[in-house]
Amino acid sequence: APGLHFVATPIGSARDITLRALDILRAADVIAAEDTRTARKLMEIHGIPVNGRPMIPYHDHNGAEARPRVLGALEKGLSVAYVSEAGTPLVADPGYQLGRAAIDAGFPVFSAPGPSAALAALTVSGLASDRFMFVGFAPTQTGARAKWIKGLDAAGATIIAYESPKRVHRLLGELCEVLGDDREVAICRELTKRFEEVLRGTCGQVRDLLQDRVLKGEIVVVIGRAVARAPSALDLEAALLVALQTMPL
Ligand code: SAM
To answer: Where does the Tetrapyrrole methylase domain start and stop, copy by copy (predicted)?
Structure first.
């Protein structure tokens, strides 16, 4: 159908792509991609020829120049498929401004949903999934991170963050410091790939586990929310005292 189609692509295993996503890539008049080589390779794996169709590179650094090209194609009533490097476009990937511009200009926008490392990690984390918050990549400066962690914790939700393997040890140390050694976490590495691994436990346990390990590959950190503490006898006594004092006689 004419319009902009955001197409989710695999986060590791090449076969993690939906049949509909392949249909859209096969039928689109124009392919726009964060990396056109990756897109070409993915299409090749699934036997989809480019057949001389225009391929527009669209990424963080050329959005302003590339957007008019995509919008121009939509203006002509063409269908454009957009794929990011991996997973779902817009999720810590380009696409937001493109979608916004298409919507503002009145063009139809569609999703071909599929893999995203955020949801894959939540699924295997063993942490509460009823309320969660995706926060993208952690900031890199140490000072900013303690504040960032505190802010996230206030949401009272399971937190899903992307982190570089170079900084994951440091992040765990900071999480333990700010949220306490007892907070539950899961480090989800190389999901859907050969060296897939999930490390679950309390912050302190996982930090110690990683102490003499070098982590490689792609990582999602999932952080459990603070567990509501059962009121202690002391709290109850204090509450009772307040109630008695304020009760009309
Ligand atoms: N759009 C993608 C998505 O929907 O998940 C995310 C793109 S973001 C630029 C790349 C980051 O996602 C990686 O640094 C890593 O934190 C996470 N990621 C991607 N693939 C992953 C995988 N197979 N296992 C674990 N984390 C992954």
So the answer is: 4-205
What's the complex ipTM? 0.99
In tens, the pLDDT along 115-173 reads 999 999 999 999 999 999 999 999 998 788 999 999 999 999 999 999 999 999 999 99
End-to-end, the C-alpha distance of the chain in Å comes to: 73
Pocket test for ligand 1, best of 7, 11, 194 (most atoms within 8 A of CB): 11
- Angle between helix axes 168-179 and 142-153 (nearest 10 degrees) is 50
* Global confidence as pTM: 0.91
Separation of CA 230 and ligand 1 centre (Å): 37
- Ligand 1 mean position, distance from CA 120 (Å): 10
